[in-house]
Amino acid sequence: MGRTFSVLRGRMANGQVGNMGIGTEIDRELEEGRKKLLASKHRFMLGLVIPALVMLAVFEIYPVTLAFWTSLHKVTLYDTGRPFVGIQNYIHLFTDSHFFNTVLPNTFIFTFAGLIAETVLGISIAHLLNRRFRGEGIVTTMLLFPMMVAPSIAAVLFAWLFNSQFGIVDVVLKAVGLPAVSWLSGRWTAMLVILISDVWLWTPWFAILLLAALKVQPPSPLEAAKIDGANAWQVFLHVTVPYLSPVLTICMLIRTFDLFRQFDQTWVITSGGPARSTEFFSIYAYKEFFEYTNYSSGNAAALMGAIVMLIFGLIMYRTFARLTGGEKASG
Amino acid sequence: MKKRIYIVGLLIALCFVFLATPALAKIKLRVSFMPFPVHNQQVDWMKKWADTRPDVELITVPLSYDVYYPKVSNSLRASKGEFDIVWHNDDWGAAWMNFLEYVDDVNNFDDINPYLWKFCFRDKNGRSTAVPFVSTSAGLFYRKDLIPELPKTWKELQDLSIKLQKEGKTKWGYVTGMKFPHAYYSFLAFMWANLGDIVYPPFVRDYDMLEMFGWQPDVNDIRVIEMLEFWWDQIHRYKTVPPDNISYSRTAALAIFQAGDAAMTGQDAHLYGDMNDPAKSKVAGKVGVAPFPSGPRGNGGLSWDVPWAWGIPKNVPPENKKAAKELLGYLLTEEIQVDLWKKTGGIPVAGVARRSLSKDDPIFAQFAKATFESPVLVLPAHYYPKWPKIHSIFTDYCIKAMMGKRDDIRKVMEQCSEEIIKAFAD
Fold first, then answer.
1. Given CB 3.0 to 4.6 Å as the disulfide criterion, which of A12, A27, B153, B241 pairs with A17?
2. What's the complex ipTM?
3. For chain B, first and last CA: distance in Å?
4. Which of B70, B98, B244 sits opposite A291 (nearest CB)?
5. Strands lying side by side in the sheet with B138-143
6. Is A294 on the interface with B (CB under 8 A)?
């Protein structure tokens, strides 16, 4: 290969190449050399990619394929036979009134509520911290604390905070003359506790990423807007938010997926109760799979969740990109 | 130079011999268990046994109750098992049966009353797939300093709770677990104490007979409805029970009892040790036990006498199975079984320990009367493979009934019945 190019370089230097047409010996040599180079490059690149491909095949493709196969068969812990049942498990899922009346609405309500709360709070905190003040480093570090706590541990903490017998929340409510609330015995109050724990855990993540973006925001558009007479709100809405849109879009997308498949806090705080009223997609699939050891319907539910998430994600991505003017992000 | 080569060669050869010597390769016994007083006691004795066995290395793996069943079920299904000994609950007997070794040949197994294993762990060949180690008999635990006369009926329990609350002696009357899978001491115990059951005919656990009756749910029967009305009244009408009791696990309920905020609780007997531990409980030394009170259609106090056990998965090497069997036989010796009672309040399964304790220990004698000698004994699970799902459906609908109007209880339980029919047909 190296020899071919050195020959070519030599001939080009002597002006021989320019005098020769396509299909000549040199062209062929050039073509062969290029092919050899490409083949060698391809081999090298393939070598680099193979470990990742193997990992992908073992840990992604194989489990998903197996899950799909299982969803088309009847596989339980206690039956040794695994008969083919076609789409029966999917029919079971789509005809389950609990799935449609409780699980899906819960999942979407929680996703939207969490996303809005975390985004608004995250932007607000980032905006507040985007200035020089004494103790800036300490405040920013403290903001990271919730992110250092494992979600399940945070969930235990919140379950006790809202415990009606020993929890501090009811003590405070009573102290200010409000009635105690049985937080975990109603659908919406229990959902609220899960939501608060999630907001507490993940708002700092939003705030830190947005703060990083704000710190490198060029001052000239802000100054220009101020000179043009824009007030603080207008500057924020028409200058800062569009500037943040690429980061914001990615943050919101990631959190949308996380919220959609939320499991840890819900499992620890309510386990989907009372009476399955706080079940989300993930809890539904988990219960089918692990509690009832009905592996087929558990897998069907999980795969359906993945498809819904994929469609939902695409819609969200386009919507966010359009709303925030993040054309670059969508491209 | 030659000498040095010989020495190096010799050292290398020794290394090979050392690595290849089978006598030095220890059998690793991995034990999965739930961290709970009775399990901890067993694990302590397992460690003592392992200390006497240089050929065995014991590895204990505590797993939370909430993830125990799914985690171990998956391990049992795998071609190579993760655990050599697994804690086994009577509830899961039918579901795990095909994955566990026969263990009725371990030492001292014959000393266990067959009643303790034949309903839950016996397979179609009539052999046991688990070795019981403790009876999970449950009862009504009460404050002896507050309650001079025990409630024998629901009505007495209700009146007593109201009286104690009015006198300001207690915050709550009876607090116990209600959420799945902790409803044994509320919905289930009280349903059985009113002679109701989930599947018709009540109290029957024989597959063939249940099959003959078409796996017919009985949850909208008057005996079950009465039980739910009783609980609804305690939560909403008389307020003797915390309003969010429907979200309590047995641990949450025990915390309230041990904090001195409830006069009574329903719990497994083996938690008596915790209730009586001054470091953990404000009511230590004041706790008594009785059978669950009888409903209006009941025949007297109720309890159960079913085991928690150890099992040996089929998917582990033969030498591990052999060592595991030796260990499980050792755990049935009188010394360890008596220690189980003394340390935790767990009721032993070995006949020799039950006999000696009944004779020598008055508190044990009281426990015996309240639990495994109570007037009505029930098998507190239905030992068919779908029991975890049926149990979960039943508990969820009971809670749903508590969340709605009293007049809607029957309607809710009719829905529950339909769900159970679907689950059996599925």
1. A12
2. 0.80
3. 79
4. B70
5. B172-175, B262-268, B138-143, B287-290
6. yes
Q: Which residues of A touch B251 (CB under 8 A)?
A: none
- Tokens 């789409």 found at: A87
Helices B387-403 and B409-425, packing angle to 10 deg: 160
Helix-helix angle A187-215:A151-161, to 10 degrees: 130
Instruction: Check CB contact of B95 with chain A, cutoff 8 Å.
Output: yes
Give pTM, 2 decimals.
0.83
Judged by a CB distance cut-off of 8 A, whether residue A163 touches chain B is yes
Q: Could you say which of 3.40.50.150, 3.40.190.10, 3.30.310.180, 3.40.50.2000 is the CATH number of the domain covering B2-136+306-370? A: 3.40.190.10
Are A296 and A71 in contact by the 8 Å Cβ rule? The answer is yes
A26 pLDDT band, cuts 50/70/90, is confident
A292: which chain B residues are within 8 Å (Cβ-Cβ)? 386, 388-389, 392
Query: How many beta-carbon pairs under 8 angstroms link A with B?
Result: 87
Domain range for A16 is 2-71
Q: Which residue has the tokens 């130079």?
A: B1
Please say if the pLDDT value at position B97 is more than 70. Answer: yes
Residue in chain A closest to B78 (alpha carbons) equals: A77
Chain centroid to CA B190 = 17
Q: Tokens 């949450």 correspond to what residue?
A: B252
pLDDT of B41-58, one tens digit each?
999 999 999 999 999 999
CB contact under 8 A, B256 and A290: no
B244/A289 CB distance under 8 A? no
User: What pLDDT score does A1 carry?
Assistant: 44
